[in-house]
Amino acid sequence: MIWWHAGVSQERREPDRWDEQLQHPNRPVTGIDWYEANAYCKWAGLRLPTEAQWERAARGVDGRTFPWGMDEPEHLRANFSSLGREALGQVTPVGLYPAGQTPEGIQDLAGNVWEWTTDHYISQRLPGLLPTSPRVVRGGSSWDPPQNLRAALRAWCDPYNKLQLPLGFRCVREVSS
Among candidates 79, 101, 92, which has minimal Cα distance to 149? Predict the structure, then answer.
């Protein structure tokens, strides 16, 4: 079954475990790679955020440490693991942690699932810019310790990765000022 079209003759099939995910429509879609997330955003007339846009949404103009402010993470604000990856957490429905929203009202920027961005990860160790170069992910996940929820923390993933981490995405759209 064709799931969506992403440009000229780029057809995508339903992601793995799609039927299971449809049973939980309020949870973030996970188990998709960067290409599937990007294709879905394009299909919806939207796009993935750049890394800078994601960070601006999470840190605001005041340079917050966490999306909600400077206070350390607590379980009323985000879905994360106090024990790290030894206690793999479960993905929870979106909007379940309103105390963790930004002052601007953006929810779920910390914990639950890492989020794909459009940007390639560039560092001294990974200097190349091939289409298959690692992509930046932001936000931490239900598997991560509280320090991984910092708004300035950046990580990377292979763009074909689907299952190593809880990976999800959010779509953004352009707004005129």
Answer: 79
In a domain? residue 4:
no
CA-to-CA distance for 143 and 15, rounded, in angstroms?
Answer: 22
Residues 94-125: tens digit of each pLDDT: 999 999 999 999 999 999 999 999 999 876 55
Residue 8 within a domain: no
Task: Of 106, 87, 74, give the one whose Cα is nearest residue 144.
Answer: 87
- SS3 state at 22: helix
What distance in Å separates the CA atoms of residue 161 and residue 76, rounded to the nearest whole number? Answer: 30
Distances (CA, A) of 49 to 22, 76, 125, 131: 24, 26, 24, 17
Cβ-count burial of 168 within 10 angstroms (0-12 exposed, 13-18 middle, 19+ buried)?
Answer: buried
Distance between CA atoms of 13 and 58, rounded to whole angstroms? 32
Total structural domains within the chain:
1
Domain hosting residue 62, numbered range: 17-168
**Which DSSP letter does residue 43 get?**
H
Give 137-169 pLDDT, tens digit per residue: 999 999 999 999 999 999 999 999 887 778 999
pTM: 0.84
User: Which CATH number covers residue 41?
Assistant: 3.90.1580.10
Q: Which amino acid is at 115?
A: E
